[in-house]
Amino acid sequence: MGLRVASLFMLWLALSYANEIRKGRTRNHGHYVCSTWGNNHFKTFDGDFYQFPGICEYNFVSDCQESYKEFSVHIQRALNSNNHPEIQYILITIKDFTVYLRPKLAVVDGQIVKTPYYSSGVLIESNDIYTKVFAKLGLVLIWNHEDALMVELDSKFNNHTCGLCGDYNGVPIYNEFINGDISYNSITYGNLQKISKPNAKCEDPDETQALPSCNGHRDECERLLTSSAFVDCRLRLNVETYIQACMQDKCACNGNEDSFCLCSTISEYSRQCSHVGGRPGEWRTQNFCRTVYDDITEKGCIPVSQCHCKLHGKVYSPGENITNECEECTCDSGRWTCKDLPCPGTCSVEGGSHITTFDGKKYTFHGDCYYVLAKGTVNDSHALLAELTPCGSTDRQTCLKTVVLLADHKKNVVVFRSDGSVLLNEMTVNVPHVSGLCGNFNGMEGDDFKTNLGLIEATGSAFANTWKAQSTCTDQLEKLEDPCSLSIESANYAEHWCSLLKNSAGPFARCHAIIDPSEYYKFQAECVSGCVCPEGLFDDGKGGCVEEKDCPCIHNNQWYSPGQKITVDCNTCTCQKGVWSCTEDLCYGTCMIYGSGHYITFDGKFYDFDGSCEYVATQDFCGDKNSSGSFSIITENVPCGTTGVTCSKAIKMFLGKTELKLENKDYKEIQRDVGDDVHYWNRTVGLYLVIEASNGVMLIWDKKTTVFIKLTPDYKGKVCGLCGNFDDKSNNDFTTRNGLQETDALKFGNSWKQSSMCPDVTQEIKPCDVKPHRKSWAEKECSIIRSEVFKICHSKVDPIPFYEACVHDACSCDSGGDCECFCSAVAAYAQECTKAQACVFWRTPDICPIFCDYYNPRNECDWHYEPCGSNVTTCRMINNVITNFSVPYLEAPCFGLICDWTEWFDVSKPHEGGGDYETYDEIRKHGNKICEAPEKIECRAKEKPDMSLEELGQKVECNVTYGLICKNEEQDATMWQLCYNYEIRVNCCEWSEISCGTTSTPSPTPTASSTTISTTVRITTTGRQSTTITTTLIPTPTITSEFTPSVTTPVTSTSPECECIWTDWIDVSYPDSSDRNSGDYETFENIQKNDPSWDCVKVENISCRAEKFPDIPIADLGQKVECNVNTGLTCNNSDQLIGECECIWTDWIDVSYPDSSDRNSGDYETFENIQKNDPSWDCVKVENISCRAEKFPDIPIADLGQKHYYYYEHHNCPTFVHHEHSVLSTCIDNCSYANAVGVSHQHHRHHYVAPQHRHQHNPGDNDDCS
């Protein structure tokens, strides 16, 4: 009876859980978890709760697929000294990898290992509280070293597991306790999972002995599990099952009040609540189950408010303060809460070329002039100048020769010379507001390269050149070469001495905690009036004197004329009187993570961090107790070679209650029960997967090792993590998780690891030192970044950090994928160049190729590599949340040109506005959309759509540049008082990605009733020329945009392109010489009608010829023929003019032969015989004729002595001479040459590719133009 009652009780628990599922609860992490705890309690993946007191080794969970078992987890329990069950050991097998765990001990493949330990996709973490195992195949195991064990499995193992955790099929009871007609109690089911070992000495629990039932202690257990601390857990878990387990524990303890009896099940309830997204409150107290564990002082569990803080190895008590030069921090609940303090700024010039700004930005500049180090921004109250001059054998050796202080509005001058002498009196100067080589001292390192013109320069040299104190000095160029590469001896000498700076046991070791030594280890013009120009004129920086309004502006070493505009980030800047005037829109921030641990923060700080764990890239939950945060992005780093460096291989993106996991070139979604509803969209743009969320977060992933994270300005100063805090101050980006600012990238990075048990990174890895044989190859390959290929970008984006990162990555990826590491590093620089509007065609068939041809159908060319992609602006509005992102120009492999005609537009009426104005501006004013630069235009009268503009006779401008204009006042008043009502349509082309398998159809061919005007679109590219197609109606205009991105191409090779393919000669139309309205129409429309399978949307070229005269250029035939790359060939009989065509001699014709045996025979080369012999010969009117004897072509026919029949009589033996003749045809006034065309079609990135034609003519007669 007891056994049956226990079975029924167990069945009731399972059905209760099943009913909970049927109510519609979303599947969450709780449904991927199996656990055991306390007094032999178990919860299966499918939600069954049961007890099993076995003390043998059992299969807790394993992969039970028949073909291949990926993992197994075995456990064994025993009774401790208090007679409570505890887990003695856990045995984990993952493929061929074995892990044996005991409390505070980890053994891998028979060898004791120190934790944290990582190998073969398995990470083991351990401390005094728990051991955690992560397996990349989709398993997480957590053990508290005592009674509680939890295993979480990826959903890919659904319905593929067995053991004490069940089959993970989502259905409670069945296949575990009910199998067909057989039902098991929990003891029987548990015994079935026993691992048989020959020497094992343990007894199976008695299956006939029911577990004791317990109805007491319900009030106490219910009070504890439904207290206010668990209010967030009630709707997430079935609390009744835990109440029943708690009651079982209390009964089993027989009145013993030790912590095991109550705390184990309540702890499990708290753990499971947290795991499904709940937030249990403070349920532990000093007198009940204690509180949190103090892992700093190791004094047991304490309230959170009593947690200590740690800094540089020293422990600080709650409430204790520390103060440094610029901030004051207080220890609060284990975190540092800091506030900024006013602090002085220092600018330095060291070694004659190494400059550190007031805000901490470091750069190198080799000058040869006087430069402004700092000056007052208000009234020029003071200025500090420095004279930098070459002082060695190369221009890389410069010295600080003189320092000049101009004070009191230049009334007092103090000069400091390198020999120590001082001219005039030494003065003390305060510089509250400054600008110059020392920056602007505003606390924001990111804008220290801002010039007095108002823009931020990209490189140190471009910035320093704007602060020349003498405009006659020559601008200095950026030195891209590594000086140590010029001499091995010099490199060894430099390494020996400079390495002392970073030596942890060296003389500078005590400084490392305060100042990062790596930067020191690496050390390797305005309009002015009345000075050089007459009063009232200004030096323009280029050797001339101009008025103030004509002063040019300079940016990134390029000069711009007054009125010119450029785009800087999301703002537009206009050159006005030598100064940039910019809009002040707030721009989104971008963080970039790429390659083997390279980071560029939202505020532009560039650093490296190689850690092999999961790290917070960015999140908006940054310690504010009143903020729960709306997103978090975690990057998982794994080794990408044997040198120890890591790459970001997987990303987790948490958006409200949605978790997205991106790995293996794809992503999957997991819905949790906690969090806000944050909507998101995903799409593929070029090579990248783009995730855009309604809360203003965008993630762009190249499906490999590169990640871009973009945030709207609303997040400024509200985020934290490895991407910095997005407050425009890059010098505080190294703010750690506990709130303090660090100078060391390693300590900063370590603070943002997800698990405290993950190993810290203790030293910077130099892969080229570890693998020196790869260094020369890496430097050679990566030199493309500093080469002529990227020259156009060097002044816009500093190539040095990208080159160094490239060499680092190329050295590190030594276990396969080395080319991918190199290509990703170069692509990162190319992407930044694209953002700076410097598009570089750097990929070639030999360098990181992208093979678009793989996607092209046979003999077609639809797919093209697009290095700079196209800008995609998105605007999403859901639940009143708006994001307006501009997706950057992303590198895209396969782009095609899509062209289409618009609808007919008629927005103007002649009787309303003095004429008919169907211009693009008017069309847009009426709410219609039309492209900025149409390719073609068609115009027609709305009431007479079949008549051409010429036939209508009015004065009308139909221009592809602006549209149609017809003015009433310009018409002949005797014929028309008003313009006709006209309408237009245009053809717009747009480069965009083409889906695989997409087929295109030709654009509609313009009819005779409309006028088509084409434009010249000039785009600089590799190996291509712009093509201009014109008509005789209106001169072809050239369209130029206000700003054209600069384009450069590799010097050594060209971008991969598709080949042109000529068609065969096409002849589908024949002129009717008897019909004056007929003609020869080898148009694309007719070709398509004749052969529906013919599909050539973009034609590159056309060749036309006459069928009968294939070797004679069509222009020499004398007919009026249009051979148009957009439409094909058109020849109208009515267009041909009688009597005005050139005469054309035929070849020599010979169709008859004299019979010498027949006196009545002869040679008859008559037109009739020629026509009979060749029916296609059609020449009615002959202008001239020439005859000759075949055997005597050089003797005039009159000298041969024959007449009429041209035969000889000699010795009474009649002999006939064989004749031939040539005909000179007169004006050919129909199109009876039977034209033919051949086209070559190709799709290409920059061209609207139109047909190539070949055209053939048959000679026809004179009266009907042939």
TrEMBL record:
One of its GO terms (cellular component) is extracellular region. Residues 32-203, 345-534, 589-759 form the VWFD domain. Residues 1244-1257 have a biased composition (Basic residues). It is found in: Secreted. Residues 1244-1266 are annotated as: Disordered. Residues 1-18 form the signal peptide. Transmembrane segments: none annotated. InterPro entries: Mucin_vWF_Thrombospondin_sf (IPR050780), Ser_inhib-like_sf (IPR036084), VWF/SSPO/ZAN-like_Cys-rich_dom (IPR014853), VWF_dom (IPR001007), VWF_type-D (IPR001846), WxxW_domain (IPR025155). The keyword Membrane does not apply. SMART domains: C8 (SM00832), VWC_out (SM00215), VWD (SM00216). PANTHER family: EXTRACELLULAR MATRIX GLYCOPROTEIN RELATED, MUCIN-2. This is Mucin-2.
